C-alpha cells in the first residue's frame, strides 16, 4: 500500500519512504496496518486498543495509543498528515 511518499509492505512488514526503510516498532507497524485496512473510516480509540494488544496480551492504555500515533506521525514526516484525529471520536487514515 502506498500513500504520499511512503510504501507499506504488509507481507514483509516493512515501511519505506523514498525507498529508505523507516525504523518503526512492531506496535507502530501493527497500528499503521490496522489504520490502512480501515482507510477512510473513523475508528474509535477503544476499537483500536481492542485490536492492538501487546504480545503479552496486555491491552494498550489510552496514553500508549496517543504516544504510538504521535511517534508514527513523526516518523512519516509530511505523510503523517494522512493519520487524522477526529476529535471526540478517534482516528481516520484519509484516502
From TrEMBL:
Domain OmpR/PhoB-type: 1-95
InterPro entries, A to Z: OmpR/PhoB-type_DNA-bd, Sig_transdc_resp-reg_C-effctor, WalR-like, WH-like_DNA-bd_sf
Superkingdom in the source lineage: Bacteria
Keywords recorded for this protein, A-Z: DNA-binding, Phosphoprotein, Transcription, Transcription regulation, Two-component regulatory system
DNA-binding region listed in the record: 1-95
PROSITE patterns noted in UniProt: OMPR_PHOB (PS51755)
PANTHER family with a match to the protein in the record: REGULATOR OF RPOS (PTHR48111), TWO-COMPONENT RESPONSE REGULATOR ORR33 (PTHR48111:SF1)
Protein name (Swiss-Prot/TrEMBL): Winged helix-turn-helix domain-containing protein
Organism, as annotated: Coprococcus hominis (ex Arizal et al. 2022)
Amino acid at each position: 500500500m502506498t500513500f504520499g511518499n511512503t510504501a507499506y509492505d504488509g507481507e514483509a512488514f516493512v515501511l519505506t519512504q523514498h525507498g529508505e526503510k523507516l525504523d518503526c516498532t512492531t506496535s507502530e507497524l501493527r497500528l499503521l496496518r490496522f489504520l490502512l485496512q480501515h482507510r477512510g473510516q473513523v475508528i474509535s480509540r477503544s476499537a483500536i486498543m481492542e485490536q492492538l494488544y501487546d504480545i503479552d496480551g496486555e491491552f494498550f492504555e489510552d496514553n500508549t495509543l496517543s504516544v504510538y500515533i504521535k511517534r508514527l506521525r513523526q516518523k512519516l514526516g509530511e505523510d503523517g498528515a494522512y493519520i487524522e484525529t477526529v476529535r471526540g471520536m478517534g482516528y481516520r487514515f484519509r484516502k
